[in-house]
Amino acid sequence: MEWYWALSLLIGCLIAFMAVGMPVVFAFFAVDIIGAFIFMRGEIGILQFVRNSVDSLQVFALMPIPMFVFMGEMLLHSGVASRAIGAVDVLIARLPGRLSLVAIAGGTFFSSLSGSSIANTAMLGSTLLPDMYKRGYRPDIAIGPIVAVGGIAILIPPSALGVLLGSLAQISISKLLVAAIIPALIMAVLFFGYVMLRCTLQPEIAPGYEVQKLSLMERLKPFVIYVVPLLMIFLMVVCSILFGLATPTESASVGAVATVVACVLYRSFSWPVFIEAVRETVKISVMTLFIIAGSVTFSQILAFSGASSGLSALVLEGDLGPLTIIIGMLVILFFLGCFMDQVSMMLITIPLYMPIVGQLGFDPVWFGVLMLIVLEISLATPPFGLLLFVMKGVAPEGTTLEQIILSVLPFILLSILVVVMIIIWPSLATFLPEMMERMR
Q1: Distance CA 189, CA 104 (A)
Q2: Residue 159 gets which letter from DSSP?
Q3: Which of 250, 256, 249 has its CA nearest to residue 233?
Q4: What is the CA radius of gyration of the chain?
Q5: Rounded distance, CA 244 to CA 247, Å?
Q6: Which of 190-194, 328-332, 391-395 has the least mean pLDDT?
Q7: Which of 213, 231, 260, 333 is most exposed, with minimal Cβ within 10 Å?
């Protein structure tokens, strides 16, 4: 069978299974079984599929995924994250669009501890949005920052999706995690600047209101109590990876323990909270590990059928420059993001993209950061961006999906600007990994 027919068969079956409502994980498992039987010699291929599934999960480097997820769930269910957001609110003084700025600053901070875009958006949407509406904020300046900053959780460590991408693409997980920090901070600064500029030019979209007059020390006190200790956890996790003091697995373990200790010290720990955090962690982690189990065989099937090599040869033999190819790959990923979830996008594209990236001679960490940003953007792209529906679920009654989409569009453009900046100046993504390499 020609490679293009094999690729059409595999992708076609996958789309068909998902179209009839089959969960993503089981859709990939079904395609794996079909592909293994056709392209990997029948029963032998099925046995190889089972062996691949077992071997792919016996990898110590996957341990950060449940640890990072647990950190976010523990902070969310204990209420410690809400107190930290409140401390940021007190610290920010009379600035244009104050509550929108609180959403960006607080959401970026919580991203550095949770790694969960859904948790970020749900928490900020349910706590800040009703107050914004009450203060007279227009939906286009109230909703957009919350949805946009929710996606930053994909980029800032601890990022479970970053660990998953590194595992699937065979990229150094520690380098990928630290490489995304600078782009994520640039994105947060652009969001912050956009809100301030727009609210200065159009003050009616975010009316000012009287806030309690506090001295600088009174504003700093909650920040020092509720934010600085959590920030220390983030710095401990990231710096231990950056300076080579610990592996991502060891850093994640320390971060998880430190999160529990912080909840105890804040008197927010209880066994029901702990059990709920563990339950949610298990749900997300099991789904992620199932995905990894299915992805290994899917990559092998693409290799055995000749689809990977055939597509790579077709792309590389075309009269296109290397950067044009990379941009084309990102555009395809962006298009898929309008209709698919992030995990499905990774499973489909990574086995096809990474051989091309390697043959073109690009840094896989650099390309991994670009992929993460496009995955972050796809969380908010209509018509099926996941965070759009999360926001619709937690927003006050009367908020329409159209309002949510229109409010997010400027932030999508700013995120695309970050992608362009990283393509033009690759050092924005490679500086920290290179510094980490020199320190070892």
Answers
A1: 9
A2: -
A3: 256
A4: 22
A5: 7
A6: 391-395
A7: 213
Express each pLDDT in 12-25 by its tens digit.
Answer: 887 788 778 787 77
Domain that holds residue 89: 3-439
Q: Are 255 and 236 a contacting pair, CB within 8 Å?
A: yes
pLDDT in tens, 218-249: 888 888 998 888 888 888 888 888 787 888 88
Read off the tokens for 248: 């991502």
- Residue 277 CA from chain centroid, whole number: 19
Cα-based angle 327, 358, 158 (whole degrees, multiple of 5): 75
How many whole angstroms separate alpha carbon 332 and alpha carbon 338? 10
Q: What is the pTM of this model?
A: 0.81
152 backbone dihedrals φ, ψ, rounded to 5°: -60, -25
Task: Classify residue 152 by its DSSP letter.
Answer: G
Largest CA distance in the chain: 75
Helices 364-378 and 322-337 pack at an angle, to 10 degrees, of: 30
Residue 384 carries which DSSP code? T
Distances (CA, A) of 90 to 35, 97, 193, 378: 57, 14, 20, 32
Number of domains in the chain: 1
End-to-end CA distance of the chain: 48
| Two tokens, residue 80 | 């410690």
Burial class (CB in 10 A: 0-12, 13-18, 19+), 135: middle
